[in-house]
Write a structure and sequence with these properties.
heterodimer; A: mainly alpha; MetI-like fold; 72% helix; B: alpha+beta; Rossmann fold; OB fold (Dihydrolipoamide Acetyltransferase, E2P); 37% strand
């Protein structure tokens, strides 16, 4: 019986294993190898073994791209901006998503599914369409733009472009990622035992003390999960800055895309990808480490 | 002296009347129990005292102060929840210190007080543990320590022992009574377990459908139940249909199960009228079988046949049939120091009881 169970487990793990090897492991190895090669004259990479100018055999294998990436201020600037945009997006998502998830989790059971559905419904339309919608909302002809510029005019400021700005990038990132913050938070908050809140009130905590001493700490796993789910995809985002951003709001994902599709410098693109992957990995590990430190919280169940 | 007054408190959920115009007063230092089946409103009443829900109408007065609309955190009382509701992200020490932190005690004073309480419930060794690392009985003791740490005027206990196994429950019952006597804090205890209620309480109220059926000392409620519900709910009871044939002062002449006729006197006789129908309630342990001692000579005696029995160890519950029709249960003690002699099924026995041991109850 035990044997058959084990083999069943093995059989079931084949499809994901194949998937991960073909679509994650092999491309990652490609990426790492390409990072050490030299860019080809017309895109792609030079063959590892080729002929030099003097018809000598030459090995095209170098650390040039790494050197370039680490000394180039522009790349660091993009990288830093990606981190700041992602962090900002995560914080704003948390500030909007927490109250939202809290209200849904505390509303009567019969309304919860409907409210949750409202959070998920935007997912039904294409990601691009949702970004285009924001382009209309923030566009120069929109009511929002007019209203804001009107107020700015009264206060004596010059009119601003809402679209094609860092503001538009972060606004879109928040909008697109909000459900990834709300869902794990809701899943956590919904499981809270209401008796704990009652007990804290009974033992002398005011409403707000009960929230900060009980609800908040107990929802930390949800906050961590949601923050990870928002922060990590944000770092590599390139569509949003391209559509609603300007030259000063490009992110690391835009650079990677440019290196592969426009500048045709694959090795530099690979190096930037590696930097990005490693930083995402660091964030994931940090989140995982923090989650493992939350002793007792795993048992915060009804 | 009464510490808590509940005056005409009513609570309705949707169109369900959960607590219906209840008034009662709890004396200072007593162990008061609210007993009733699930859905009788006992927990709702307790939660209204705690301030976790607000009554629709009526007043709750604690030591002369109207606390009806006071938020729970300002009430000088604590609740022990059925699930204990220990904070899972805090250690035992932090849990017990919580009420003191909330009332902004000085840190060194908190440490001293918490250590003393942990010592009282023998949990000093577990101070750094988290609730999920404790056994059910230990969690219970943490909950008790946490609720007593700032010496509340009143402790409310909502079926606190129902999650424990039978042995531990009995042990904790003794602990609770001891604790209540030592601290002198008034306990209001909610339970559906009638034996627990009788064993622990100084006084108790039996609730049904949001109303108090009877409020008295446990032994009075048990021996002199006032209503059919109380007689039926509290312990075992034979409830035989009866009719009042005649009345003479405190004495009622009853026709029971249309067969047995005898006199019984009770102090609430004036509440009933001749011809009124109701029930004659008599506890199984008040009925004897084949009793030969001279004490049984004056008892009302009937011939019956054995229908079956349940052996409980200390006693045996027999089911007898009088005239093949009237079912009567008798609890016979196995106290004699000899092999228990069981009656066989179908065997004819003489059952006897003192009619005074039972009561006529209105329908």
């Amino acid at each position: 019986m035990k044997m058959s169970f084990l083999s069943e487990k093995k059989v079931l793990s084949i499809p994901p294993l194949v998937y991960l090897i073909c679509l994650f492991l092999i491309p990652t190895i490609f990426m790492i190898v390409i990072a050490f090669r030299e860019p080809g004259s017309y895109g792609g990479v030079e063959p590892i073994i080729g002929h030099g100018n003097n018809h000598q055999i030459q090995i095209y294998f170098s650390l040039e791209s790494f050197k370039y990436a680490f000394t180039n201020l522009f790349i660091w600037q993009l990288f830093l901006r990606s981190l700041i945009f992602s962090a900002l997006t995560t914080i704003i998502c948390l500030l909007i998503g927490y109250p939202l998830a809290f209200v849904v989790a505390r509303s009567p059971r019969k309304y919860r599914d409907i409210l949750l559905l409202l959070v998920i419904i935007p997912f039904w339309s294409s990601f691009l369409i949702r970004v285009y919608a924001w382009m209309i909302i923030l566009g120069p002809q929109s009511g929002v733009s007019h209203a804001i510029n009107f107020v700015l005019g009264i206060l004596g400021f010059a009119p601003v472009d809402l679209l094609y700005s860092s503001f538009a990038v972060v606004a879109c990132l928040v909008y697109i990622n909000l459900p990834f913050m709300v869902l794990p938070l809701y899943a956590n908050l919904e499981k809270h035992d209401i008796a704990l809140i009652e007990a804290s009130r009974d033992l002398g905590a005011t409403r707000s003390e009960a929230f900060w001493k009980i609800t908040m700490p107990l929802s930390l796993p949800g906050i961590l999960a949601g923050s990870g789910l928002v922060f990590i995809p944000c770092i590599g985002m390139f569509v949003v800055p391209e559509l609603v951003g300007n030259n000063c709001s490009l992110m690391i994902g835009n650079l990677i895309k440019q290196q592969f599709l426009q500048t045709m410098n694959w090795p530099l693109g690979s190096v930037t990808s590696i930097i990005m992957t490693l930083s995402v990995l660091c964030v994931s590990l940090a989140v995982g480490f923090m989650a493992s430190r939350l002793r007792g919280l795993r048992y915060a169940r009804k | 002296m009464s510490i808590l007054e509940i005056q005409n408190v009513t609570k309705q959920f949707a169109d369900h009347l959960i607590v219906n115009n209840i008034s009662l007063s709890v004396k200072k230092g007593e162990f008061f129990t609210l007993l009733g089946p699930s859905g009788c409103g006992k927990t709702t009443l307790l939660r209204m005292i705690a301030g976790l829900i607000m009554p629709d109408s009526g007043k709750i007065i604690l030591e002369g102060q109207d606390i009806t609309n006071m938020p729970p955190e300002d009430r000088p009382l604590h609740t022990i929840f059925q699930s204990y509701a220990l904070f899972p992200h805090m250690t035992v020490f932090e849990n017990v210190a919580f009420p003191l932190k909330m009332s902004k005690w000085d840190k060194t004073k908190i440490n001293l007080q918490v250590e003393e309480l942990l010592d009282d419930v023998q949990l000093t060794k577990f101070a750094k543990r988290y609730p999920h690392e404790l056994s059910g009985g230990q969690r219970q003791r943490v909950a008790i320590a946490r609720s007593l740490v700032d010496r509340p005027k009143l402790l409310l206990l909502d079926e606190p022992l129902s999650a424990l196994d039978a042995n531990l429950r009995e042990h904790m019952q003794i602990e609770l009574v001891k604790l209540q006597e030592e601290t002198g804090i008034t306990f209001i205890y909610v339970t559906h377990d009638q034996q627990e209620a009788m064993a622990l309480s100084s006084r108790m109220a039996v609730l049904n459908f949001g109303e108090i059926e009877q409020l008295d000392l446990p032994q009075v409620i048990y021996t002199r139940p006032k209503t059919y519900f109380v007689a039926d709910f509290l312990g075992k009871c034979n409830l035989l249909p009866a009719e009042i044939l005649s009345k003479n002062g405190q004495t009622l002449r009853l026709l029971v199960s249309e067969q047995m006729e005898f006199d019984t006197s009770q102090d609430n006789a004036e509440e009933f009228s001749v011809g009124q129908k109701g029930y004659y309630a008599i506890r199984p342990e008040k009925i004897y079988a084949n009793c030969k001692s001279h004490e049984c000579e004056d008892l009302y005696t009937q011939e019956a046949s054995v229908k079956g029995y349940y052996y409980y160890g200390d006693s045996t519950l027999y089911e007898f049939l009088i005239n093949d029709k009237i079912k009567v249960q008798a609890m016979l003690s196995n106290s004699l120091n000899q092999t228990v002699k069981f009656f066989a099924e179908g065997q004819k026995v003489a059952i006897s009881f003192d009619p005074q041991a039972g009561d006529f109850l209105a329908e």
